[in-house]
């Protein structure tokens, strides 16, 4: 059990009875690990016997039985079969609340309504969490901690059913947020689906790039293209199910790109430099609106420390920061190929920057740069 799971296990779970999870991939297995750590009876089902056995072997739950009577069913399957599985689970478990964790909410709901399915016990939801790698082997109990978990209720949703789904999110350390399916899909188009396409398009330019160019790659380009490693098969389904909102954002973005390209074609033309500066400035303003730690809109300052490529150095760095009473708000590590050291970027509140620099320097650390 991870430290996070152990901490959760000290509190009583809000969900009760058996929780049936259909789909033992990354999200389904991660939910299973977290709930199992709380002592909840987790019954796993998956169309792939190998995937199911792997999830059980790793401790995400037990194999589901025909005589199970779950209080909650979590559908964690690919988007193109989500509605089918929801319909089947509603019919098979008439006393259970059914939720799903698909990244698109309107399309499954529309399909169920068109089929005339009674959706009184169905509540769509979506945890904004994941990893670049998929499958049961990549599952972790703590991937939901501190992350938003959207819950889409409607007029037919009972208070008790809503409390059960929101309780699931809270048990996993997530922050439940109520949204309509329409608002959810427009939101994820902007903050998830289009960024995936932008990262993939940019990384696609590397395929034919000279090796010499790629050797210059630093942390900035790695951060920008990190999610380009995602699985194409899954994203074809997600983007197809949320096509209209994605196209709206792409069309607006294409117009912005065209404006910048026009300005750079004649950089000395009147207004060209201002157009470029306004683009960068508007990006600054957008980044400032992104919520930070605990959902706060706070700006942190980076302190970049050179860390020797030797065992135990990161542990010593964090130990020194703790002794200095400097809280690490965020952290990332850049290690260039062939280098005998890495650059650890520690994000701290502005008031702690000088204390961190002075204290770490006194302890023998070399500060590579700050935000100055």
Automatic annotation (TrEMBL):
Gene3D superfamilies, alphabetized: 6-phosphogluconate dehydrogenase C-terminal like domain (1.10.3660.10), NAD(P)-binding Rossmann-like Domain (3.40.50.720)
Pfam family, one: PDH_N
Record carries keyword ATP-binding: no
Domain of life: Bacteria
Keywords linked to the UniProt accession: Amino-acid biosynthesis, Aromatic amino acid biosynthesis, Oxidoreductase
Molecular function GO labels: NAD+ binding; prephenate dehydrogenase (NAD+) activity; prephenate dehydrogenase (NADP+) activity
Entries under CDD domains matching the protein: ACT
Ranges of residues in domain Prephenate/arogenate dehydrogenase: 17-294
Pathway: Amino-acid biosynthesis
EC number, UniProt record: 1.3.1.12
One biological process term in Gene Ontology: tyrosine biosynthetic process
InterPro entries given in the database record: 6-PGluconate_DH-like_C_sf, ACT-like_dom_sf, NAD(P)-bd_dom_sf, PDH_C, PDH_N, Preph/Arog_dehydrog, Prephen_DH
Family of the protein in this entry: Belongs to the prephenate/arogenate dehydrogenase family.
Record protein name field: Prephenate dehydrogenase
